[in-house]
Specification:
The protein is mainly β. The chain is built from five helices and 34 strands.
Amino acid sequence: MLRRDALATPLAVLALSAATAAGARAQGGGQNPAAPAGPTPFDAQTVRGMARDLAARPFRAPDSSPPAPLGSIGYDQYRDIRFEPQRALWREAGLPFQMQMFHRGFLYGARVDLFEVADGQARPIPYSPDLFGFGNALGGRPAPTGNIGFGGFRLHAPINRPDYFDEICSFLGASYFRAVGKDLGYGLSARGLAIRTADPAGEEFPLFRAFWVERPRQGVNSITVHALLDSPSAAASFRFTIRPGEDTVFDVEATVIARADLATAGIAPLTSMFFFGPADRGGVDDYRRAVHDSDGLMMSTGRGEQVWRPLQNPRDLQVSALGDTNPRGFGLMQRPRRFGDYQDLEARYERRPSLWVEPIGDWGEGVVQLVEIPTTGEIHDNVVAFWRPKDPLKARVEYNYVYRLHWLPAVRGDAGLAQFSDTRSGAALYDPAVRLFVLDAVGERLAALPADARPEVEVGTSAGQVRNAVAQRNPDTGGWRLSFELLPGNAPLAELRALLRLGERPLTESWIFRWTR
């Protein structure tokens, strides 16, 4: 695990650890309510019942202060604590999945209880120092011996070759989790729930208090994980059915219960990093062509429109809301897939997954909200996207959300529409006050256009003027290039929209972009 990967979990998790530790001290700490000492009956409704019980009571912060010296160790020391692979759960049984645990410490001080579910019984997975090698992490001091719980866990399965168990997903830190598809590496994260993201009052970070992992079955390429989420504003239960492959899929069933009316809930939140790219290199002094885990937000609306919004590293906090009813999907994509797009032999950004949220059933009215936070480096996740319902979540009411998470290289979307593969911007040569935008689109419909086709460029702006809109074939990509100039005048920002069409028929998805002065 690279330093950048370990630190990619937002630094707000560190603030969360400090806040929950303070809350635990103020309230006397307390045992995790999901941590019985022995086997207990378990079924599909068990965790939902726990979430219902939690939501009916005031929030009680979990134990977030691991035994000394684990709470004060740094990144390098934490990296020295390694799970012993030969101790992986189900390794000796020859099952299609194996489970390894993360130790508490560094940013991950909150206690997480783990259980194995088999034959209708949930059995605690007890902590033991024998599960880990500590290297120089503890400076010669003895490892904890009590049942202190874990920081999280990861699952392994053959995904790239049949004789090796690759790490396919991990749950570590607050309610964050990550996964990979075949031939991909870790990149962006998903979360269980977002609350008050980009709110002036400060964000609230819910956390997973406990997980129940069903023992995998021989010959079955899926594994089921149940999770209990808690925070001052809400409690929730999750059921993840995980199927690794070229497109690793999480089937998610979530029940969210607010403790009080909640207008700031983010459903199916995604968290990523965008430092710079071809359209956003202002003030960057870097040998690489681009640095990002994701380069754009893609959305398929309930009306059937496909939208592409390139990401930015803004000078000031930017919040965008794309209103919709019953969205078909949304996600943060990593479209450039060549090494030459990044030129980074260590980070290999071309292998970072895209993550697509596919709602199952009707989600009603709301917005896909995109939050872009200024950053000065690539170790900070600074992009968040999620679904926010139009109406607040009412206290003590159970809200059920079912969706699929697809971790994969790219989302095809509407096969009849070309996708925008590049967005570039710069000052016009003749006038630095004029912005030139150059967009490349590729797709089968564009490639199949006859030689005499003359697609129309449709461009709009909320402020200023657009002129000199041009479309021309790009022989190097087999697609078409759109270019236009923006004369912003005195406007501080302009919301732009563009697409190619042939008559009444759209040829491309809709490109949208927020230009700021």
